[in-house]
Specification:
Elements (H helix, E strand, L loop, with lengths): L6 E3 L8 E5 L6 E5 L4 H17 L7 E5 L4 E5 L6 H6 L5 H15 L6 E3 L5 E3 L5 H8 L1 H5 L7 H20 L7 E3 L8 E4 L2 E4 L6 E3 L3 H7 L8 H14 L5 H28 L10 H12 L6 H11 L2
Antiparallel strand pairs: 1-2, 2-3, 3-5, 4-5, 6-7, 8-11, 9-10
Helix pairs in contact: 3-8, 4-6, 7-9, 9-10
Length: 313
């Protein structure tokens, strides 16, 4: 992409996108550039944002697009994420998190599945098929376990791992009927004009009701106490009058564990494949969350026994 004096490169995320701030005084905006997987990072990203906006959820509006040159221009929400806000010493974390949960409950009411993208084609949000959950969890065995076991041991580990993950997925109760952001955590929520705005939406699927809550409460990037985790979980349950609490708790725990296994694999892949090593420091947080949700929990016994075989090496 050709640079000009008005563009300032911004700190990136874990994706293959590059962000620039357009610093023209009359029209501040963000340029999102992606020459790889640009359908997801540009076209689908805007499509999901349009669905959110149509349902009164604050997300970046498309200002212009040049898809042939691999970029779109979107609304600039500034730099203040909820993560930044929570790091401030005077912030009442519980109050902020409750506001986020109310926003999540509103997002989960979205029934719209289809939208016209900016190329005037129909886009329909896919379902979070069990095969996707398995593929994501398998990132753990694909990228992380190499450092602990040799090639022949890895084949045995993978076979056992896949069987265990499939069995856990079969134990999920809630059907794929809910809008799932899929990366719903405080770094992807921003403060804009005293409202909470949602970013990084391109991976949204129609999935399990527990998924985004697990992303929020069991976030590897921002640690919360066991007490706050419980209060937030209970607060969400109180807002859901028709929910089956034991079934939802079961799904929440399974999804949290599967998601954090995926995260370990992704962060290791970012380090090895993309040379983004800064995410390695978050892997211990993911391990702690897996342990917190799985220890003394019978449904995870086989998984814990298998994970212990690599952690003891």
């Amino acid at each position: 992409m050709r640079f000009n004096k008005y563009l300032k490169k911004l700190k990136g995320d874990a994706s293959l996108r590059i962000f620039f701030r357009n610093r023209k005084k009359n029209s501040p905006s963000i340029i999102v550039y992606a020459n790889k997987d640009k359908r997801s990072n540009l076209l689908i990203y805007d499509s999901i944002n349009k669905i959110l906006l149509k349902n009164n959820i604050l997300a970046p509006k498309l200002l212009s697009e040049n898809y042939s040159k691999n970029y779109i221009e979107i609304e600039d929400f500034g730099d203040k994420t909820i993560f930044n806000l929570l790091k401030e010493s005077r912030t009442n974390k519980l109050v902020i998190f409750k506001k986020i949960i109310r926003l999540l409950s509103k997002i989960q009411l979205i029934k719209q599945r289809k939208i016209k993208d900016f190329k005037k084609r129909n886009y329909k949000i896919p379902y979070y098929h069990p095969k996707i959950l398995l593929k994501e969890a398998k990132l753990f065995s694909d990228w992380y376990v190499d450092q602990y076991i040799n090639k022949s041991e890895k084949l045995i580990f993978e076979k056992k791992f896949i069987k265990i993950i499939k069995n856990l997925i079969k134990k999920l109760h809630y059907k794929n009927v809910t809008f799932v952001h899929r990366d719903f955590h405080v770094s992807n929520l921003m403060i804009f004009k005293n409202k909470i705005a949602v970013i990084d939406t391109q991976d949204a699927l129609i999935g399990n009701k527990a998924y985004d809550l697990a992303s929020l409460i069991d976030d590897v990037r921002f640690k919360t106490s066991k007490n706050i985790k419980k209060k937030l979980f209970d607060y969400y349950l109180k807002s859901q009058k028709k929910i089956n609490k034991p079934q939802f708790k079961n799904d929440f725990e399974i999804i949290s564990v599967l998601r954090n296994l995926k995260i370990i694999g992704i962060f290791k892949r970012l380090s090895v494949r993309d040379k983004k090593k800064k995410y390695l420091k978050l892997i211990p947080n993911a391990w702690n969350l897996i342990k917190f949700r799985s220890r003394n929990n019978d449904k995870f016994k086989n998984l814990n026994d298998l994970l212990d075989t690599i952690k003891k090496k």
